[in-house]
Design brief:
There is one protein chain. With about 425 residues, the protein is mostly beta strands. It folds into two domains: about 190 residues, no CATH class; about 190 residues, no CATH class. It contains four helices and 23 strands. The strands form three sheets. Strands 4, 5, 6, 7, 8, 9, 10, 11, 12, 13 and 16 form an eleven-stranded mixed β-sheet that branches. Strands 1, 3, 14, 17, 19, 20 and 22 form a seven-stranded mixed β-sheet that branches. It has a five-stranded antiparallel β-sheet with strand order 2-15-23-18-21, with no helix packed on it. Strand 19 and strand 20 form a beta hairpin. The protein is elongated.
Length: about 425
C-alpha cells in the first residue's frame, strides 16, 4: 500500500478489478529473461604518516602541472576542463521525460513492450533499480500521474519502494528553492521520503500502484524513486483524467499525446529521455595536488554526446523509445558522489591556499541552470544557478607542506538543469 500519503492508501494489488487488468495479463506472456559543514581547514590530515611526501609528479590523479597558471575570471573555458575521474555505479534508472509536456491520457513511458507509435523494446527490471519522472500537464484539466509495477511472471513477486514526487502546487511554485526539482533533490540526499512502500506481494499478472499524484493543469511534476523487486517486473508511468487505477491499467496500452521530441543519432545535448539507463550514480575518489602561486583547474561534470567534450558522462541506455535519447542526457535524477583529496604539492615550504566551487557553464537562455541541494561532508548546501550567478562555494582552506584534507561532495542532478557543470579549484 502507499506509505506516506493518506489519499493514496488502499491502492494495492488486492483492490484491482482483475477483469480490467488486460495489460498486465498480456505482459505475462512476454519473455522476462532479458534482461556536512564544508571543509574544516583547521583539521587537515597529516600526510607525514604516508609512505611518501606529497609530490607534484607522484600519486595524484590531478597533478600540479595540470593546473593553468593565473587567476580565474568567471567560469573556466570549456577547452581547459579535464575529465572527471570515476564512472557509473549502481542499478539502472527508468526515466520518463519524453514527452515532457503531455496533452492527454495514456502511457508516458513503460518497459513492458515496444510502444505502439514510438518503438523501443521490452526490458524487465529486477533487483534494485530507480524510476525518475519529469512532466508538465498540458491536458487542460487535472491529471493523475501513476507509477504502476506489474508482475509478468508465473510466481509471486515482492516489491518495495521509497522516494518523493511533487507537483508545483505542493511545493509553492517553480521559483528557486520552491520547485519540485529542488524538493525532490533535497529529500533524495537526506533520505526523508514522502512515499514508502513496505515489501508487498504482487501475484502473477497483477499491478501495484507505487505512486499516484494529482497534477493541476499547467503544473510540473518531478519524482525520483528507488524500487526493489525480487523477480523481473514491468514499470509504467501513466497519465489519466480520472482517479482510478483500473483506468491507469487500461490506458497503459496507449501512448499519451504530447511534445514527443526526436533526439537524433547520436543524441545532441538536451535530448529527451524515455528509457532505462545503465546507472544511478557517478562515483569517484581522487586526489588533487595544489600548486603554489595563482592557478586554477576545472573538472568536467554532466557532459553528453554532442556537447564537444572529450568525456561523455551520460549513462548509456539499456532500452529506450527509438527516437528518445540513447543516453541519460542531463543526468536528471542521478547522483554525483565525489570524494576529493587536496594536498600541498610539496614543491616548496610555502603554504597553499585553495578554494573549491561548483559552477554551471551553460550559456543558454534558460531561466535557471541548476536548482537543487548538494551536501559537503554531509551538510546541505543549496545550489541555485541562474544567468549571472553560476558558482556555489564548497569551501576553502590552507595547506602547510605535507598536509592533506578531504571532502565529499554529493549532489542529485535536479530536473530542468542545463548542462554542463564543472568542479573548479583555485589556488591563491
Amino acid at each position: 500500500m502507499m506509505g506516506a500519503r493518506p489519499r493514496d492508501a488502499g491502492m494495492d494489488a488486492a483492490s484491482i478489478d482483475a477483469s480490467l487488468d488486460d495489460a498486465a495479463s498480456e505482459d505475462a506472456a512476454l519473455d522476462a529473461s532479458p534482461g556536512d559543514a564544508g571543509f574544516d581547514a583547521s583539521t587537515p590530515t597529516d600526510a607525514a604518516s604516508d609512505s611518501a611526501a606529497a609530490d607534484a609528479s607522484v600519486g595524484f590523479d590531478i597533478p600540479a602541472d595540470a593546473w593553468t597558471t593565473g587567476t580565474l575570471s568567471g567560469t573556466p573555458p570549456r577547452a581547459e576542463l579535464l575529465p572527471l575521474p570515476g564512472g557509473g555505479e549502481g542499478g539502472p534508472v527508468l526515466t520518463s521525460n519524453n514527452p515532457e509536456e503531455y496533452t492527454g491520457d495514456g502511457l508516458l513511458y513503460g518497459n513492458a513492450r515496444p510502444s505502439p507509435t514510438r518503438g523501443g523494446m521490452a526490458y524487465p527490471l529486477t533487483g534494485d533499480f530507480g524510476v525518475y519522472l519529469h512532466h508538465l500537464n498540458r491536458s487542460g484539466r487535472t491529471s493523475y500521474v501513476w507509477i504502476l509495477v506489474t508482475n509478468p511472471g508465473t510466481s509471486d513477486v515482492t516489491v518495495s519502494a521509497e522516494g518523493s514526487g511533487y507537483d508545483q502546487s505542493e511545493t509553492g511554485g517553480l521559483g528557486l528553492g520552491t520547485s519540485p526539482d529542488y524538493r525532490v533533490s533535497r529529500e533524495w540526499l537526506s533520505g526523508s521520503f514522502d512515499t514508502t512502500i513496505a515489501p508487498t506481494t504482487i501475484a502473477p499478472a497483477r499491478p501495484l500502484a507505487v505512486y499516484r499524484e494529482d497534477v493541476p493543469n499547467g503544473a510540473e511534476i518531478d519524482g525520483r524513486f528507488a524500487i526493489r523487486a525480487s523477480a523481473p517486473v514491468y514499470v509504467y508511468v501513466v497519465a489519466t483524467s480520472i482517479d482510478d487505477i483500473n483506468e491507469a491499467v487500461r490506458r497503459s496500452r496507449d501512448d499519451a499525446p504530447g511534445d514527443y521530441r526526436v533526439s537524433g543519432t547520436p543524441p545532441p545535448p538536451f535530448g529527451r529521455e524515455a528509457g532505462v539507463y545503465a546507472h544511478d550514480t557517478w562515483r569517484a575518489s581522487f586526489d588533487v595536488a595544489v600548486p603554489g602561486a595563482a592557478a586554477h583547474v576545472g573538472l568536467m561534470v554532466n557532459t553528453a554526446t554532442g556537447a564537444g567534450f572529450s568525456q561523455v558522462q551520460a549513462f548509456p541506455a539499456l532500452a529506450h523509445y527509438d527516437q528518445s535519447a540513447a543516453e541519460a542526457v542531463g543526468m536528471y535524477g542521478n547522483v554525483y558522489d565525489l570524494d576529493v583529496g587536496l594536498a600541498h604539492d610539496g614543491a616548496d615550504t610555502t603554504p597553499r591556499r585553495v578554494r573549491a566551487t561548483f559552477q554551471s557553464l551553460s550559456t543558454g537562455a534558460a531561466s535557471r541552470y541548476w536548482d537543487g541541494v548538494a551536501t559537503v561532508d554531509g551538510v546541505e548546501r543549496d545550489i541555485r544557478h541562474i544567468p549571472g550567478s553560476v558558482a556555489t562555494p564548497l569551501g576553502e582552506f590552507t595547506l602547510a607542506p605535507g598536509e592533506r584534507a578531504r571532502f565529499r561532495f554529493r549532489a542529485m542532478v535536479p530536473g530542468l538543469t542545463s548542462i554542463p557543470q564543472a568542479l573548479v579549484f583555485e589556488s591563491y
